[in-house]
């Protein structure tokens, strides 16, 4: 089953100055497009998500002219005749050209202006924050692990008797366990 999150827009859409799309014999207006798909207007018949369309696309965007054949998959369709569609099949050179249009490589001017980032200063030995030694970290990890084991043996909800205080004890156990997990993650450096 497809996750609806993946059906939503993942790329910024770019408006199109001049366009012509011919899909399944219908002339459509291209409102905007992205690296993953396009928004079309003027669809006359009913369309459903998942429907595939063969299209010929011509557009001008960012001063560049694009003309390509594409297999599209309808993602959303409105009763007003708008279709959001993703590319299913594109010619490899055209797909690369579209990707370069949306994510251009830095040019010589950009590289010439780039300045190297200086490395961070080394930690000072006299700083009390950096005074923790590896041996102390290992000891702290062992202490937290033994504390978790002892706590779980004594207070875990599966071993506790089921009386009127059971629900409160479960909540307290969860809360304290999350504190132990956070302490363990901090000591391990995660």
Would you give an account of this structure?
The protein has about 190 residues and is of the alpha+beta class. The protein has 2 domains: about 10-105, predicted glycosyltransferase like domains (Thrombin, subunit H, Beta Barrel), CATH 2.40.10.220; about 130-190. It is built from 4 helices and 7 strands; from the N terminus they run βββββββαααα. The protein starts with 13 loop residues before the first strand and ends with a helix. Residues about 1-5 have low confidence and may be disordered.
Secondary structure category: alpha+beta
CATH superfamily of the largest domain: predicted glycosyltransferase like domains
Tell me roughly what share of residues is in helical segments: 25-40%
- CATH topology term of the largest domain: Thrombin, subunit H
Based on the structure given, which CATH architecture of the largest domain is correct? Answer: Beta Barrel
Order of helices and strands: EEEEEEEHHHH
Q: Would you state the CATH class of the largest domain?
A: Mainly Beta
Q: What is the end-to-end distance?
A: 33 Å
Q: Please indicate the count of domains.
A: 2
By DSSP, the count of extended strands is 7
Main β-sheet description: 6 strands, antiparallel, barrel
Unreliable segments of 5+ consecutive residues: 1-7
Tally of helical segments: 4
Assembly context of the chains: single chain
How are the strands of the largest sheet arranged? 2-3-4-7-6-5
Which whole number gives the mean pLDDT? Answer: 78
Strand content: 25-35%
């Amino acid at each position: 089953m497809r996750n609806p999150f993946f059906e939503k827009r993942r790329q910024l859409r770019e408006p199109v100055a001049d366009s012509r799309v011919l899909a399944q014999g219908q002339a459509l207006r291209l409102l905007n497009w992205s690296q993953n798909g396009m928004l079309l207007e003027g669809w006359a018949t009913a369309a459903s998500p998942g429907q595939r369309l063969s299209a010929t696309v011509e557009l001008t965007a960012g001063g560049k002219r694009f003309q390509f054949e594409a297999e599209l998959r309808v993602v959303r369709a409105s009763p007003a005749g708008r279709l959001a569609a993703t590319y299913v099949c594109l010619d490899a050179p055209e797909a690369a050209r579209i990707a370069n249009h949306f994510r251009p490589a830095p040019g010589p001017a950009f590289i010439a202006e780039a300045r190297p980032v200086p490395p961070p200063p080394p930690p000072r030995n006299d700083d009390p924050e950096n005074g923790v030694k590896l041996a102390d970290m290992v000891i702290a990890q062992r202490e937290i692990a033994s504390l978790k084991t002892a706590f779980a043996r004594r207070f875990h909800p599966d071993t506790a008797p089921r009386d009127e205080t059971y629900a409160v004890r479960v909540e307290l156990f969860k809360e304290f366990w999350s504190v132990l997990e956070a302490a363990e993650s901090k000591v391990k450096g995660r």
